UniProtKB/TrEMBL annotation:
It comes from Zhihengliuella alba. The keyword Iron does not apply. One of its GO terms (molecular function) is hydrolase activity. Gene3D superfamilies: alpha/beta hydrolase (3.40.50.1820). PANTHER family: ALPHA_BETA-HYDROLASES SUPERFAMILY PROTEIN, CARBOXYMETHYLENEBUTENOLIDASE-RELATED. Residues 21-229 form the Dienelactone hydrolase domain. This is Dienelactone hydrolase family protein.
Length: 232
């Protein structure tokens, strides 16, 4: 039987406060660093599984807990909790997570990648714009409009987006506008992929039944290849 990926809950300092998260380390013991940004449900088993899957691909993956341990599967509660998290506060917490991840002995890269889902899709872009050269690859999976930067002039990371054509929470027209704005203002390498799917098509624990195995697999393979090519 294959050895399980080492993983653990961790605490780190962010903006002078204690923050928490979940880290997964490859069986080889080291690798490039990737930040995993949660959906509005909280730091769920699904997000932990995403970190584990990245570790299985050779990355040291850290999923910060933006909600301080709070988890729900109710959309109204999730929306309420997200509304209580100011975009600036979430971005600062992610900045602390970035510094913590880069300080880990297991991390072999001088930059980190960042991948985020739903609410995390906006926070990934905010983190990349805020941390500039520290984040070399940003991978937003859909979004809900939360934490999306007004400007991308500070963003230097390469960006690969994964957006759904039938997304009622973040319509594809907004995603296309976002793609063009990032390309125009940042000058970075920007590629968005659009899928014949609904919001949260990558989440195999989504209770709304939006999970799309074929598109999820395609998007995941693209994301992993992109991170390998750009996190160094």
């Amino acid at each position: 039987m294959a050895e399980k990926t080492p993983h653990q809950n961790v605490s780190f300092e962010s903006e002078g406060r204690q923050a928490h998260g979940y880290i997964a380390i490859p069986q080889g013991g080291s690798g490039p660093g990737v930040i995993v940004v949660q959906e509005w449900w909280g730091l769920t088993d699904h997000i932990r599984d995403v970190a584990d899957r990245l570790a299985a691909q050779g990355f040291v993956a850290l999923a910060p807990d933006l909600f301080g341990g709070w988890i729900t599967h109710d959309a109204d509660e999730a929306g309420d909790m997200m509304s209580r998290l100011p975009a600036e506060e979430g971005a600062r917490l992610l900045a602390g997570a970035t510094d913590y991840l880069l300080s880990r002995d297991e991390v072999t890269s001088r930059t980190v990648g960042a991948v985020g889902f739903c609410m995390g899709g906006g926070f990934v872009l905010a983190l990349a714009a805020q941390q500039r050269e520290k984040v070399s690859a940003a991978v937003p999976f859909y979004g809900v409009g939360q934490a999306v930067p007004e400007s991308y002039t500070d963003l230097t990371a390469s960006v690969q987006g994964h957006y759904a054509q039938r997304d009622s929470m973040y319509p594809v027209e907004q995603a296309r506008e976002q793609e063009e704005q990032i390309r125009r203002e940042s000058g970075a390498d920007v590629t968005f992929h659009y899928y014949d799917a609904d919001h949260a098509f990558h989440n195999d624990e989504n209770t709304a039944g939006n999970y799309d195995p074929e598109n999820a697999r395609l998007a995941w393979d693209r994301a992993v290849s992109f991170l390998r090519a750009n996190v160094e």
